[in-house]
Amino acid sequence: MILIATDYSLNALHATRVGLHLAQHTDSRVMLLHTFKSPSRAGRFINMDLYIRKAAEEDMEEFIGRIEERYIPYIDETRILPGYTEEVIRHLEARLPVGLVVLGTQGDSAIREIFMGRTATSLLNKLSCPMLAVPPEAEIAAPAALIFAWDGDPLDPHVCQTLTEWSAKIRCPLQLVHLHAPHKPDPDPETARIFTAEQIAITALPVPGDLKAGLDTYLAGHPRAWLAMIKRKRGLFEPLFHESMVKRQLFTTTAPLLIL
Question: Residue 238 has what pLDDT?
Answer without folding.
Answer: 44
